[in-house]
Amino acid sequence: MPELPEVELARAVLEGALDRTIAAIDDTDHWVCRPHAPGEIAAALVGGRLTAARRRGKAMWCETRVGGGPGPDLGVHLGMGGQIVVDGRVGPTGPEHRDPGPRKPEWDRFTVTFADGGSLRLFDKRRLGRVRLDPDVDALGPDAETITREEFRTRVGRGRSAVKARLLDQSVLAGVGNLLADETLWQARVSPSAPADELGAARLDALHDALEAALEAAIAHGGVHTGEVIRHRRPEGHCPRCGAPMVHGTVGGRSTWWCSAEQA
C-alpha cells in the first residue's frame, strides 16, 4: 500500500486541480466509487470547486465548495499502484507505478473534467484505488510528518508490543508503512522487536528524529523506495552502514529486515 511519502507526492499533484469549476465527473466505476451509486458523486460536486488538498497519514482528500457553501470532502485512496493525474502531471511515480505500456481508457477509474478543459484522473490499472465522499479519518492517529517529539514518546512508547508494531498502528501514528518503518528503525539503530515501553525517552527521541529525516528524504527523492537501507532488504543483503548481514524475520505480523550488528 502507498505510504505517507507517496501520498504526499500525490497530494501535491492534486493542488493543481484546485479552484477550477467542475464541469463533469465520470464516477461510473461502481467498485472504485463504492458505496456510491454511479452519478452520486457527480450530483454532489458538479458546478463546484475543489478548494484544498489535505492529507493525514495515508489518507488524502479535497475540501470542496458547492453552491456558495462548503460541499462534501472528496476522498481519494491510491490503492496498490494508483496515480493522480492532473493535466498530464502524474504522482507518485515510484517503482510500484512502472510504465504499464499503452494506457487503456478504462484504467482511468474516476475523472473530474473542469470548465477550462483540464482534468483530474485516478489512473489505476489494478482497480484497487478508492474514491468516496466524506471519508472518515477520525480513527487515525496524528500525522507522522507533523507529530512532536513529546507526543511521539507518549504514543509510540506505550505498551509491551514491539516498537515496529507501534509504528505501523495507524491509530497510534498515521502514515508509516512497512518500508518506512524498517528504514526509520535502521536509521535509529533500534531493533524492530524491542518492547516499545523499554526504549526510554532518549531512544524514542532518536527514533522520532530518524522518522522525520526518513520522511523528508523520501518525499524529496520520490518515495520510500529511495531509502538508504531499502535496496539491501534482500537475501544476502548487507547493512550499507557497517557491512554486517541483514536479517529477515516477522515482527508484528509483517516481513521485516534489520542489521544483525547494529539492531541486535
Description:
With 264 residues, the protein is of the alpha+beta class. It has two domains: 4-133, N-terminal domain of MutM-like DNA repair proteins (Alpha-Beta Barrel), CATH 3.20.190.10; 149-259, Helicase, Ruva Protein, domain 3, CATH 1.10.8.50. 24% of the residues lie in helices and 23% in strands. The chain is built from six helices and twelve strands. Strands 1-8-9-6-7 form a five-stranded antiparallel beta sheet. Strands 2, 3, 4, 5 and 10 form a five-stranded antiparallel beta sheet that branches. It has a two-stranded antiparallel sheet with strand order 11-12. Strand 8 and strand 9 (119-123) form a beta hairpin. Helix 5 packs across helix 6. The radius of gyration is 20 Å and the shape is elongated.
Could you write a compact summary of the structure shown?
By secondary structure, the chain is an alpha+beta fold. The protein has helices at residues 4-14, 40-45, 149-156, 163-168, 178-188, 200-221, and strands at 22-26, 49-56, 59-66, 69-70, 74-77, 83-86, 89-91, 108-114, 119-123, 130-133, 246-251, 254-259.
Helix and strand topology:
Layout: H1 4-14, E1 22-26, H2 40-45, E2 49-56, E3 59-66, E4 69-70, E5 74-77, E6 83-86, E7 89-91, E8 108-114, E9 119-123, E10 130-133, H3 149-156, H4 163-168, H5 178-188, H6 200-221, E11 246-251, E12 254-259
Antiparallel strand pairs: 1-8, 2-3, 3-4, 3-5, 5-10, 6-7, 6-9, 8-9, 11-12
Helix pairs in contact: 1-6, 3-6, 5-6
